[in-house]
Amino acid sequence: MAEVRYYTDEHVSRATVGGLRNRGIDVLTATEAQMLGAPDHAHLALARRENRVLFTQDADFLRLAAAGVPHSGIVYAHQRTPIGEIIRGLVLIHQVLDANELVDRIEFI
Q1: How confident is the model at residue 39 (pLDDT cuts 50, 70, 90)?
Q2: How far apart are CA 102 and CA 82, in angstroms?
Q3: Which of 28, 55, 72, 81 is spaced 20 to 30 A from 47 at the CA atom?
Q4: How far apart are CA 84 and CA 38, in angstroms?
Q5: Taking residues 86-94, what's their average pLDDT?
Q6: Which residues of 45-83 are buried (b: 16+ CB within 10 A; e: fewer)?
Q7: Among 32, 68, 69, which residue's Cα sits nearest to residue 48?
Q8: For residue 93, what pLDDT is reported?
Q9: pLDDT confidence of 43, banded at 50, 70, 90?
Q10: What is the mean pLDDT of the segment spanning 95-103?
Q11: 11 close to 59: Cβ distance less than 8 angstroms
Q12: Is the pLDDT of residue 1 over 90?
């Protein structure tokens, strides 16, 4: 089983990233990857090269996926979703899904 590892775009809070890391989940941020200000398709390409599932709160990524841009998986939560709910959802996905199952698939929190 391939473990789900996350990549977060620049809109994701540090509290969310910290909550995942405190639970032992591998997370790479856009800041760490030196991708601040990069276009959305570049974030998807990086996540795909790194075999990471993109977690975002930016609906533009949903439009790219709908247009057929390949990706290693997208998890989306609306901007108003509480951080605790986001962390619980991402942990659940990490626990029950294989990274390969998420390729070109979108999950919503």
Answers
A1: very high
A2: 23
A3: 81
A4: 28
A5: 98
A6: bbbbeebbbbbbbbeebeebbeeeeebbbbbbbeeeeee
A7: 69
A8: 98
A9: very high
A10: 97
A11: no
A12: no
Contacts of 55 by beta carbon, 8 Å cutoff, 6+ apart = 6, 7, 8, 9, 12, 16, 74, 75, 76, 77, 86, 90
Amino acid at residue number 46: L
In angstroms, the first-to-last Cα distance of the chain is 23
When computed from its CA atoms, the radius of gyration of the chain, rounded to whole angstroms, is: 12
One-character DSSP codes across the chain: -PPP-EEE-TTS-HHHHHHHHHTT--EEETTTTT-TT--HHHHHHHHHHTT-EEEES-THHHHHHHTT---S-EEE--TTS-HHHHHHHHHHHHHH--GGGGTT-EEE-
Band (66; pLDDT cuts 50, 70, 90): very high
Closest CA to 63 of 72, 76, 50, 52: 76
- Among all chains, which residue has been given the structure tokens 């108003």? 80
